[in-house]
Amino acid sequence: MNFEELYQELILDHSKRPRNFGPLPDATVTVKGDNPSCGDEVELSAKLTPDTVETLKFTGHGCAICMASASLMTIKIKGKSRQEAAAMAKAFRHMLVTPEETAVPESFGDLEVFSAVRRFPQRVKCATLAWRALEQALSTVPAAPVSTEEND
Amino acid sequence: MNFEELYQELILDHSKRPRNFGPLPDATVTVKGDNPSCGDEVELSAKLTPDTVETLKFTGHGCAICMASASLMTIKIKGKSRQEAAAMAKAFRHMLVTPEETAVPESFGDLEVFSAVRRFPQRVKCATLAWRALEQALSTVPAAPVSTEEND
Amino acid sequence: MPSTNSWLSIRQDFPILDQQVNGHPLIYLDNAATAQKPRAVLDCLDHYYERDNSNVHRGLHELSNRATTAYEGARERLAAYIGAEAGEIIFTRGTTESINLVARTWGDAHVGEGDIILLTEMEHHSNLVPWQLLAKRKGASLRFVPVTPDGLLDLSNIDELLAGPVKIFSFVHISNSLGTINPAAELCARARLAGVTTLVDAAQSSGHLPLDVRELGCDFLAFSGHKMCGPTGIGILWGRKDILAAMEPFHGGGEMIASVGFTESEFKPAPYRFEAGTPAIAQAIGLGAAAEYIDGIGRAAIFDHDQALARQAVDLLEEIPGLRILGPRHDRGGLVAFVLKDAHAHDIVSMADQYGLALRGGHHCTQPLLRKLGVPASARASFYFYNTPEEVEQMAAIVRKIQTFFA
Amino acid sequence: MPSTNSWLSIRQDFPILDQQVNGHPLIYLDNAATAQKPRAVLDCLDHYYERDNSNVHRGLHELSNRATTAYEGARERLAAYIGAEAGEIIFTRGTTESINLVARTWGDAHVGEGDIILLTEMEHHSNLVPWQLLAKRKGASLRFVPVTPDGLLDLSNIDELLAGPVKIFSFVHISNSLGTINPAAELCARARLAGVTTLVDAAQSSGHLPLDVRELGCDFLAFSGHKMCGPTGIGILWGRKDILAAMEPFHGGGEMIASVGFTESEFKPAPYRFEAGTPAIAQAIGLGAAAEYIDGIGRAAIFDHDQALARQAVDLLEEIPGLRILGPRHDRGGLVAFVLKDAHAHDIVSMADQYGLALRGGHHCTQPLLRKLGVPASARASFYFYNTPEEVEQMAAIVRKIQTFFA
Ligand SMILES: Cc1ncc(COP(=O)(O)O)c(C=O)c1O
Ligand SMILES: Cc1ncc(COP(=O)(O)O)c(C=O)c1O
Questions:
Q1: Which residues of B touch D364 (CB under 8 A)?
Q2: Of D44, D188, D229, D365, which is the active-site residue?
Q3: B39, C126, D18, D397: which could form a disulfide with C96 (CB 3.0–4.6 Å)?
């Protein structure tokens, strides 16, 4: 079945027990993202330093793809430099609209499970919701050399 | 040709030289009728007594069918009782929507030339414009026993 | 009522149903979103474009005459379809435009500051947002008939809700996300007693049960062609003759004018006053053919058929662990929406699609209702007369597989 | 440019042209009212309804995905057709709705008491009445660029006309009752210098010559699908991205919302913000196919072809006693309107129909213009790429017969 390819064990696991799920009291930025046409909602909170995404957590609800993507993203991005985080978000969104046969970059690691979403164009926005929130968070709070600001 | 049936000599004659065409200074009622979708306009002026359509004239512009119908109507109706005039208008409008083979009443006289219009449903409103104006004129000014009123 | 065999032969009228999707025969259960089109409607469209296509009304040549006759004939057929007069039938793009037309013309003229617009909590966005916009323009406010936890209108206070400066009561006949059939005639009668104008959103009922505007007793009725086997891009607004006669135009343009000067114009009477510009000619004619086709089957029979499928679906789905059905258990229109404890609606629908099963998932354009019911999204199976009990069985079996997979 | 032979083979694409009317082969010269549809467009509609029909945007199943892809693909094709971006293309019912949308949303927000709306004396009712209604709502007034006796815009005072509190200049690209081709790019440039927003009514040009909104330099552009080989019931409003981004919604309903609460809603960005409810899906896709078909022939070639037929028609008609041609003698779009001293336009058109010749007679939805020209009604022959020089000859011969008959 096609859909077992889409809903691999890793995705099911992260959608049922999302990691880094919950509030982040010392967040420096919180961004709410939604897919208006289907009702998915993700609220992403991150603690950013001038250079680094120190930590990030999320709340919200959505389909398995959306939840698993947010969960795996938080693991992947935590501790990355802001530049790396932005590049990864861009690469992830880009990967989802490449042809099925295109190879997925090594650096993706576990994120590769989402490559099957390419066969389900209607689900791309589910997989990218948390990543769009991340990009907005990064753009909202200026990076170094400007000092960190509070923002909600 | 079908259209020679529609545009019989009598119609061509009356459309080119309409009778009773012009203003009627001592009119008791004047009614303006138009076919908005095509731009035909007829202004009918009549001198009504409590019982009779004493005289009537018209101005305006329109196609041959419209002009000839107005012209022949003025001849036909002049001097008729109001009741007869109303009945004739109704009968004329009715005749135009009867099936082609239906016989035309004897009393129609020359008006029979318009029976060919039944084959041209789009032209019915051209043939009836003046008659609708007549009907409105009759309904605007009360008949006997109420005395005649001025109206414009 | 057609026999099982004739239902199956009716199904043959729909070319689209005869296809494989993802390696399985298509099971199309997304009829509340849009219905499929029978050969009769497609042939009617082809005939129009291949023989008669012309602009209407102002033409004096043969094709224009044929097009006008067919277009006005469709108006008459639609009038007969709902027990109305032809002069009361306005062609629009669909339910949404019909409701916006009323909100803009009747609404702008009759709703003022401090007035109240009464809706229900189960309205589709198309019967909610136009009134929000009107309320904002005019300083009016909205009031809602509440929905009970089992998806019925709570009518215990209906007379109080209708009291005060309530100008219009606009409500859905059959809910597209609960399946609830509202007692439209009773609601209209109560509203009339209170002097309140009524609009019935018949988007989900027009193709599914017999409708008669005089029996309903409403003032406006709106529906879409595409949900009743007609083409996309066409719908109906019906309005009571005396109300339409007093209404200002909606759009300005060709066809709706009696006489135009550079600075002032006079307008034609209804329905033309409300149909500015070249109308959706082919689509109106196609909708006429759809109404004829539906009445050839019989709306009472269709209603029974759809209800039977819905009953069957409720019975089968209820057995699935963690599945909750939204809306009333019985007496529902031909649709069933549900949520699974273990799977999100999108996942259900995506997986169902892998089996060739077309369901819809999401808020079904009733966000506030779903929020109130505490459900972010639901999956919905909606039926029409070409669906079969076998399809319902397969649907339930697929949903069960999905539940097992995610459990 | 296609050769004579390939023009004839293009004609074979139009099934409707192959018929007899009143015992004569149909000569369809009513293209300015509506154009005929090629097989490619009809096949596209059939394919949609027979394979892909589904509601768009919110669906997660295969058919919905196909329908959405085709619908958004049509938007992209239409964008390319006029040198725009997909996000600037709003699907409407036609030119009339497009103009009403601008008058209602942009107009209500930007035109106030004492402001001026600049039009021309040759506007179609659809580009006149919406502005009359706006002016009435807002206490604004209308101003007109005059038309010269030979049917051209009198531009001698254009800068003065654009001066003062003029908010928008809305004008027709090719006049449907004169054939005049207005210098749209120049007019838009003048307006921009004066800080005036522009709308170009491209109803008669969109299928007849190459159009590029950046070259035109307008702010809005409106046209109808049915006049360019597309289905009825579909049209386009193009608006400059930054202008659309700042515009309030038109209709409220499904598909145009970002989030709905009981009393407040947020709206999606353009173009969805302006497409409430289920759109005319099949028709939008069909219009995409029409644009593709037209560009397969080439709009520059179509323009030359239509102009050549118009020149031929002018030359032949001019020889008929008592015949007066309206509009400029040369440099006209592919249509010729005329009056006969001895016969009224309706009589001409009715008689022509007896020969299978489809002309249009009347005021062509430009009553004020015809009144100014002192003509109550005219007869009009309008051409498209499937018409032939032989048809033009036959047309002129028939008009001559009619003249003789009534003389
Ligand atoms: C110049 C012009 N503008 C506007 C329109 C109106 O177009 P539609 O009737 O398709 O809305 C027409 C067509 O009749 C036209 O010729
Ligand atoms: C109850 C209800 N009202 C209104 C609508 C809107 O109909 P349309 O999108 O055809 O305008 C729908 C369909 O989506 C509906 O189900």
A1: none
A2: D365
A3: C126
Kindly give the distance from the C-alpha atom of residue D122 to the centroid of ligand 1, in angstroms, as a whole number: 12
Domain membership flag for residue A106: yes
CB C335 less than 6 A from any atom of ligand 2: no
> Does any ligand 1 atom lie closer than 6 A to the CB of residue C254?
yes
Does the distance separating the beta carbons of B122 and C60 come in below 8 Å?
Answer: yes
Q: Do A38 and C377 touch (CB under 8 A)?
A: yes
What the block records as the tokens of C360 is 């819809």
Q: Note whether residue D348 is domain-resident.
A: yes
pLDDT of A69-91, one tens digit each? 999 999 999 999 999 999 999 99
Confidence of residue C307 (pLDDT cuts 50, 70, 90): very high
Calculate how far, in angstroms, residue D134's C-alpha sits from the geometric centre of ligand 1: 19
- Residues C282, C48: contact at Cβ < 8 Å? yes
As for how many domains chain D has, the answer is 2
If you measure from the C-alpha of residue C57 to the centroid of ligand 2, how many angstroms do you get, rounded to a whole number?
30
C188 is catalytic: no
Q: Does residue C158 share a domain with residue C131?
A: yes
Print the domain residue range for B15. Answer: 3-140
Specify the number of domains making up chain B.
Answer: 1
Cβ atoms within 10 A of the Cβ of B142, count?
Answer: 14
State the ligand closest to the CA atom of D228.
1
* Test mutation, B2, B3, B5, chain D, max D CBs within 10 A: B3
Picking from D261, D296, D331, the residue at the C-terminal end of a domain is D296
C66 contacts chain B (CB < 8 A): no
| CA of C32 relative to ligand 2 center, distance in Å | 9
Q: Tell me what pLDDT residue A132 has.
A: 93
Cβ distance of D93 and C142 shorter than 8 Å: no
* Nearest Cβ partner for D258 among A36, A122, A123: A36
ipTM of the complex: 0.92
Cβ–Cβ gap A123/D60 under 8 Å:
yes
Nearest CA to ligand 1 atom 14: D33
Q: With left for phi above 0 and alpha for psi between -120 and 50, is residue C331 left, alpha or beta?
A: left
C132, pLDDT greater than 70: yes
Q: Mean pLDDT of residues grouped by 10 in chain B (152 residues)?
A: 78 94 94 81 94 95 94 96 95 91 88 91 90 92 51 40
The string of pLDDT tens digits covering residues C149-201 is 999 999 999 999 999 999 999 999 999 999 999 999 999 999 999 999 999 99
pLDDT tens digits for range D331-383? 899 999 999 999 999 999 999 999 999 999 988 999 999 989 999 899 999 99
Question: What is the full DSSP assignment across C59-119?
Answer: --SHHHHHHHHHHHHHHHHHHHHTT--GGGEEEESSHHHHHHHHIIIIIHHH--TT-EEEE
Residue D216 falls inside a structural domain: yes
D215 and D97 in a common domain: yes
Cβ pair D390, D28 in contact under 8 A: no
- Asked, for residue D288, whether it belongs to a domain, the answer is yes
In CATH, what number is assigned to the domain containing residue B130? Answer: 3.90.1010.10
Output the six-digit token pair for A123: 């689900």
User: Does A38 reach chain D within 8 Å, measured CB to CB?
Assistant: yes
Residues C16 and C60 in one domain: no
CA–CA dist D20, D15 (Å, integer) = 12
End-to-end alpha-carbon separation of chain D, Å?
A: 42
Q: What is the CATH number of the domain that holds C354?
A: 3.90.1150.10
- Same domain? C330 vs C208: no
Residues D212, D258, single domain; the answer is yes
What pTM was estimated for this model as a whole? 0.94
In a domain, A151, yes or no: no
Does residue C54 sit in the same domain as residue C136?
yes
My answer on whether D162 and D303 are in the same domain is no
Is B148 inside a domain boundary? no
H or E, element range at D353: helix D345-354
Find the CATH number of the domain harbouring C56.
3.40.640.10
**Parent domain of D201:** 43-296
C92 Cβ inside 6 Å of ligand 2: no
**pLDDT grade for C263, boundaries at 50, 70 and 90:** confident
Q: Is the CB of D201 under 6 A from ligand 1?
A: yes
What region does C322 belong to: left with phi over 0, alpha with psi -120 to 50, or beta? left
